[in-house]
Amino acid sequence: MYKVFLNDRVIRIGTAANIKINKLTVTFSDECTADDIRKWFTAFSESTEDDVSIIHHKPDHFFNVFQSAFTIVHAAGGVVKRDNKILFIFRNGKWDLPKGKLNKDELAEEAALREVEEETGIIPGGIDLRLPSTFHIYKSPYPDSKGDWIFKNTYWFQMYYNGNHHAVPQEEEGITQVTWIDRNNLIEVFSNTYENLKQIINLYKL
After folding, report:
1. 24-27 vs 2-6, strand pairing mode
2. Nearby residues of 166 by Cβ (< 8 Å), 6 or more positions away
3. pLDDT tens digits for 71-129?
4. Rounded-to-integer distance, Cα 200 and Cα 197, Å
5. 87: Cβ–Cβ under 8 A, 6 or more apart, which residues?
6. Strands (E), the chain
7. How far, in Å, are 8, 66, 196 from residue 71 at the CA level?
8. How far apart are CA 58 and CA 161, in angstroms?
9. Taking a C-beta distance cutoff of 8 angstroms, is the pair 44, 123 a contact?
């Protein structure tokens, strides 16, 4: 099943077999187009529903069509581990993980390593695991695309770090803290982070 977030609201995409019957459900046909999805999404975004499931017998195919209804942006980020601790940033009032958009012709792995270094001052030793991607939709705040709905696909990678360099927050990106947090103490982070990030943080809670 795919989960796509709109702030704290979730759109689930899957087959009838993996959708709970007590959830609000929507079914799209094989002939549905990106325009059909845009019309549905506009209505959903203006509603008060916070959890909806889209049923399709070919969820992978439908997910590709769903993405095409928006402006797609690719990003990458890193979960940096040191012993039993994870590197977190505090950005715009919420706990977050270092991440950012891919540059032109940049591989996701390269972007993730670059973003970690830029946003935290920490240079990981390398990548040792690819993690699940996260998906969320937001309205563009940028002048050249202001008001457009953006579909962000963020690739995540687990990284290792054995050094002891002092972390430096990238303040121009709204980052005020860079902190190593023990995996036994992730409750505070979990209570003040983004819904889509909880899928990644859940992988590390003890």
Report:
1. unpaired
2. 121
3. 999 999 999 999 999 999 999 999 999 999 999 999 999 999 999 999 999 999 999 99
4. 5
5. 79, 80, 81, 97, 98, 116, 120, 122, 161, 167, 178, 179, 180
6. 2-6, 9-14, 24-27, 51-55, 71-82, 85-91, 94-96, 99-101, 126-139, 149-160, 175-182
7. 20, 11, 19
8. 40
9. no
* Cβ count near 61 (within 10 Å): 11
Question: Residue 145 — pLDDT band, cuts 50, 70, 90?
Answer: confident
In this structure, are strands 71-82 and 149-160 parallel, antiparallel, or unpaired? parallel
H/E element, 45: helix 34-45
Q: Which two tokens stand for residue 42?
A: 């506009």
Of 191, 7, 206, 174, the closest CA to residue 98 belongs to: 174
94-108 pLDDT per residue, tens: 999 999 999 999 999
What number of other Cβ atoms are within 10 A of residue 80's Cβ? 26
Among 63, 52, 59, CA closest to 26: 52
Q: What's the whole-model pTM score? A: 0.94
DSSP letters spanning 98-138:
-EEEPPTT--HHHHHHHHHHHHHS---SEEEEEEEEEEEEE
* CA gap 37, 54 in Å, rounded: 11
Contact between residue 90 and residue 120 where contact means Cβ atoms under 8 Å apart: no
Domains and CATH numbers, the chain: 2-68 (no CATH), 72-201 (3.90.79.10)
